[in-house]
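pinned: reference chain
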Amino acid sequence: MKNIHLVFNFKSALICLLFFIYGAITAQTSFDSLNIKSPKHYFNTLIVMDAYRKPDRAFKDTIPPINKRLKSYGIKQFNLSFHIPLYTKDIKETDGAISNVHLLLTGNYLALKPVFDGLSQHKLVKAGIGLRFIYNTGRKGLWFFEVSPFVTHDVTYPSRPYYRLASSAIYSYNFSDKLNMRLGVTKSFLWGNRLYLPFIGFRIGRLDKVNLSIQFPRCASLNFPFKSKYIFSVYTKPQGGMFNFSNHDSLYYKKTDATFHFARYEINTGFRFDVRVSTHFNFYMASGISSRNNISFYSERANKGRAGIYSTYFFTKDIAPSLYFNFGLVFKFGKTKSFYNNRNIYDAIDLNNTMGQNNGNAQIPLTPKKKSDYNLKSVQDLVDYNDF
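pinned: its structure tokens
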């Protein structure tokens, strides 16, 4: 009954989140019906649906015995994420610069199915909601702060949920439209552990043209926009996390423990193609090689009382490289204030994109090489004709 109650709570929370998103979208797009000419925010409401698949890789060795139990490893994953602008305030500085404050609500629902041929299928859920605060100084600097509490839970069998907190603090500095550097700190679970890591990033090239972006520990990419609707990228990035895993299969020898922690990480290196179908809808496809794969099982009892990383595990395994496949849908809602060619707002959008589920910088209009390639419809929502 307890497990049924927990599953019900997860489904109820997800339904509530979807209703909340619908309400926020309605509020952001209601300006037209009220004949208000100036929208409130610089950020659209965005929803990203992302599917990821990695085929099974068989375990060739049978030492330790858990290898024989598991037999193989693959991944089926679905991620639903969103961000909604809650508050925006423009501030006119004494020197004439316009600074602004942004507060965004973020949400994430991830369903992970690690495929082990020797076990029944487990479904691991990660769900969270958080806040992002962005302060644009109106000059060259930008501050970014994020707090994202979340819960992980194995919904397949009776097990208790486990609560965690991710957070980041980053300063971004624009030397020019073509050169940016970032420095900060982030608490991340991408590497299959709770790590406090420095955030170091730089970008060469404009965000709406060819650019090289390296953002440790999140991603590195070389991006080639062309025309006003397409982006081709070569990239590498880590993917992973820590999840609560039911001990129903008795993998952990202490059968009195109902759960343990399942941790995974990998490095994805490949190609991505983004298509901007319309003002409100984009999609992307990606594929490549998944390398440096590792899975580990951690007992909470063995790591109890440790504030830093988990260092005691009862199983760890490096997995052979394999192909991966990724497909995503991006939905964009609402109208925004004018920010066309605004360097700092572009940077804020890119930083928000980097720290979330990558939506391909859906809000930043691309600069085509030929004037004939300009799509007025794609940028008209960014321009407030009252500014002229």
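why pinned: The chain has two domains: 2-32, 45-367. Helices lie at 2-28, 65-70, 343-355, 376-380.
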